[in-house]
Specification:
By secondary structure, the chain is mainly alpha-helical. It has 19 helices and 2 strands. The protein has a two-stranded antiparallel ribbon with strand order 1-2. The termini are far apart.
């Protein structure tokens, strides 16, 4: 086969991978078996080399030349880590990485740069990893679990840092995990046989995958970017966006369930208890039951993208010097920027804090009356549950 023919086949293969569903199946088909194999490798170095190789191959096949973007972010943050004073290195890496994101998003928004599919997701999750390492190093808790008993920690080698940034587990969809969790997985001498548990964890996909395919056929979010949709009536667009939010959620439910199963498969974030059961709560990113059935927006938010919320609390809310009265609003605003610069993100995240406060106030004012009337209790829960969906539905807005 000539090089020209091989190059043509490769180009076609890359075009096929740009499809949302095909990319999803490709990442699942490579990541899950790789995770099963990872825990059996003989040494931490072998695990790192294998993990980096899988991540780079996946990235290059889907993102092509844009693979250089996460590599550049990793190197820039490591240089900052090396040259910055320890007492401020976490904050400096935070500013460097989010400035990198800002430039990237502005170039994309202005049309000056058209990124490859999914490279944005890779950059978002890598920002979480590099910022967490910077702050953990600054606070002497890179390898120690308890900051009170920790000693001054040393900066890891570029190879170890690169291995953490480019660990294929959680690389595309999350969940987020710290360097401590990653390091424990590398050096663990206890082999937890979690393959069956990982497969069992993916049982919801038997419902989520057909549901996503059905919804995407009749309620495609891509349609909201077309001129025809913008010319529809307000009521039509409102109903379509509400339904579209369900399509949006089901897609993420499926991605996170599989990502959690991949973590379980390679023993990342898993702990075997004395009774033989396996605890993997640290890598759980979604609680579907509470996200759907909790009537308070605050409870719904806590059940969604849980590891990123923990990152926001640990590295933003707890480290900022802003007054506590505005910290929550700042965290939600930063979360909106982290997701993107489309209006829908800001409508969602900036409307959530006042909606949460309003729901809490209504709940407190009606508590005594609700205790006496079951009908009133159900009515209030229905009203609050419906109002919880409205700010979140704005997430699907593209313009």
């Amino acid at each position: 086969m000539s090089l020209e023919v091989a190059g043509e086949y490769y180009s076609r293969f890359c075009e096929i991978l740009q499809s949302d569903s095909v990319s999803f199946l490709f990442l699942l088909g490579t990541s899950f078996p790789a995770a099963l194999l990872l825990k059996y490798l003989p040494s931490p170095t072998a695990k790192q080399i294998f993990s980096i190789t899988i991540a780079l191959i996946q990235t290059y096949l889907i993102c092509a030349a844009d693979t250089l973007l996460p590599i550049l972010l990793c190197i820039c943050s490591y240089i900052t880590l090396r040259i910055a004073p320890k007492r401020v290195c976490g904050r400096l890496i935070f500013h460097v990485s989010f400035s990198f994101l800002l430039i990237f998003k502005l170039l994309v928004f202005s049309g000056m740069f058209i990124p490859s599919y999914l490279v944005d997701s890779v950059l978002l999750l890598m920002v979480l990893r590099v910022c967490s390492y910077g702050y953990d190093y600054q606070l002497d808790r890179v390898l120690e679990g308890d900051i009170k008993d920790s000693k001054p920690s040393q900066i890891c080698s570029l190879f170890d840092y690169f291995g953490y940034c480019f660990c294929f587990v959680g690389y595309w969809t999350g969940p987020f995990f710290t360097y401590q969790t990653y390091n424990k997985m590398l050096h663990s001498k206890t082999l937890i046989r979690s393959s069956k548990l990982a497969l069992a964890h993916m049982k919801p996909m038997l419902i989520l995958l057909p549901l996503h395919m059905l919804q995407n056929t009749y309620n495609s979010l891509d349609y909201t970017m077309e001129e025809e949709f913008l010319n529809k009536t307000f009521l039509y667009k409102f109903i379509y966006l509400v339904a579209g939010f369900w399509t949006f959620k089901v897609k993420f439910y499926g991605g996170w369930v599989i990502a959690e199963a991949i973590c379980i498969a390679c023993n990342l974030g898993t702990v075997e208890k004395e009774d033989g059961t396996i605890d993997y709560s640290s890598i759980i990113n979604i609680d579907i039951y509470n996200t759907e059935l909790q009537w308070e927006l605050a409870q719904c938010v806590r059940s969604w993208n849980k590891t990123v919320q923990q990152w926001m609390k640990t590295y933003v809310y707890d480290t900022t010097h802003l007054p506590k009265s505005v910290r929550t609003d700042f965290v939600f605003g930063l979360s909106a920027f982290w997701h993107g610069i489309r209006p829908g993100y800001y409508l969602t995240f900036l409307s959530a804090p006042p909606m949460i406060k309003l729901q809490q106030k209504v709940g407190n004012l009606t508590r005594k009356a609700r205790e006496k009337s079951q009908d009133l209790e159900m009515s209030v829960q229905l009203d609050l549950g419906t109002s919880s969906e409205r700010p979140l539905s704005c997430t699907v807005l593209h313009a």
